[in-house]
Fold each of these.
Amino acid sequence: MTARIPVPEPAHAPAASQPALDQIQAAFGGVPQMFRAVSNSPAALQSMWGAFGALGGGAIPARLGEQIAVAVADRNRCEYCLAAHTALGRKAGASAAEMASAQAGQSDDPKTAAALAFALQLVEGRGQVSDADVARLREVGFNDGEIVEILAHVALNLFTNYVNVAFNVPVDFPAVKLTAR
C-alpha cells in the first residue's frame, strides 16, 4: 500500500511538528504511521495530538473511548483505526470479544451499548440526532459532560478515519478484519 502523501520519518518532519512527535514517541515507544502522515501539517498534528490528550484525561474511560473508536472505524471502513483502536482497547482492559462486539456497535453492558448506538447515530446521521437519542444516554446514567465527550470521541475518530482512508496510510498495527457490508 502506498500512501497518497509523504509519511516522513520523524526526523524529517517539519520542525514545528517535532515537539508533538517527541511526545508521541514517548507515549507509544515509536511514532505510528498516522501521526507521521499528519506531521506534514504541524497545526493538524497539534490539533490531533491535543485532542487525544484532552479526551484521554476526560470523564469517559479509555476502554469506552476505544470501543467507540472501533465502532466508528468500522462504519467508516478505516482499517488503520480499527487495527490501532482494537489494540488500544485490549490494552485498556477490553476482551477480544468485547472489542469485536463494539466493532459491530454492540455491547452486553447497557451503558456501553447506549454510547455505541449514539456514536453510530452521529456518524450515520452526520450529527443529526433526536431528543430521544440524547435521553437514552441520560437514562443509562451519562451526564451532560459525558454526552459531550462521546460526541468529541466521535469527532476525533472521524478526523483520524478520514486521514487514514483519504491518504491511504499504511497500517502498522495488527490487522483486524472489517465487518462485511
Amino acid sequence: MAMLTNALSWVRSLQLRHFTHQEEVPEKYREDGILTGYRLAHQPWRYYIGSLFQIHNETLNIWTHLIGMFVIWYALGQYFLIYDWWTDKDSWPILTFGICASLTHFLSSLAHLLHSKNLYVHHLVFMVDFIGVVLFAFGTGILAMYSCSDKEMYSILRPFYLHLLAFSTWFNHAFFCFALLCFSGGPAVRKRRALQVSALLVEVLLIFVPFFPRYIKCFTDPDCSLHSLDHITITFPAFLAQAFFFLSQIPERIFPGKFDIVGHSHQIFHICATIAQLLQMRAVHQDIQNGVSSHAEPDLSTMLIVLAILISCSIGSICFLQKYIPCTLKKTKTK
C-alpha cells in the first residue's frame, strides 16, 4: 500500500504546472503558427520527463517518433522471419538501415521531450537529434548501393562509395548544427530549414547515383516496363512530402493557433518519415526477391564500423560546437 501511495505521489509530481502562450516564451523556442501549448523553461527535469504523458504542442512530436521506432522494430522482426541476419548478406543493408532509422526516431523523440529546459539544452539536444536525421540519409544510401544499385554503377562506385557517403553525412550534420546556431527561433526557422534541405540535396544526389541507371536502361529497353520499378518510385512521393511539410509549415502557418496540439506540419513530417522508411524496406525486399542485389557484396562489420565512426565524428562536432551555444535567454516582451 505504501509503495502504491509513493508511486501515485511520484506521478502527481510529474504533472505540468501549466502551459503558456507563444509570446511568453523565448523567441528561439517559438514555432511559426503555433501560438499555445508551450512548456515553461527552467523547470526540474521531472517536469519535462513528465510532459511525455501530458497534452502540449510537443506531445505528438514525441509520440509520432516513439511509435515510429516501434513500427520499424516490428518491420525488422517481420524481415527477421524471412532472412537469416547472421548469414544472408542481402539482409545486412536492411539491418543497418533499421539501426539508422531507430536512432532517427529515438534521438528526435528525446530532443522534442527535453529541449524546453533551457537555451543550452535546446541547442544541444537538437544537435544530437541531427545525428539521427543524417543517419536516415546514410541508411538510405546503404540501401541504394547494396540493395538497389545498377550492376555496372556498383562496380564503379564500390571502392569509395561508403566512405564518401559517410563523409557527406558527417558534413551535413556539422552544417545542420552550424545553421541551428545561426538561425534559431521565429522567422529564422524557415531560413534554417531551407539551408538544411539544400545541404541534403548533395547527399540525395549521391544516394540516387547507384540505382538511377536502372531507370535509364529500363526506359531505353523495349522489353522493360518502367512499372517494374514502381516499388522504388513510390518512395519518392513520401520523401517529397517530408520536404514539403518540413519547409512549408503548413497548415499552421495558414491557420495560426488552429493546429497547436494536433495536426501541425512537424507531426505530419514525422509520419511521412516513418512511411518512407517502411516503403524503402519494402522496395529492398522486392529487389532481393527479384535477384537485383545479387551482384552486391555488403559487409556487415564494415558498415557497422563506418556507422560507429560516423556517429563518433558527429559527437566530436557537437563537443567542438557546444562552446558556441548561447547559455542565456533574452527577456521577452509580453503584451
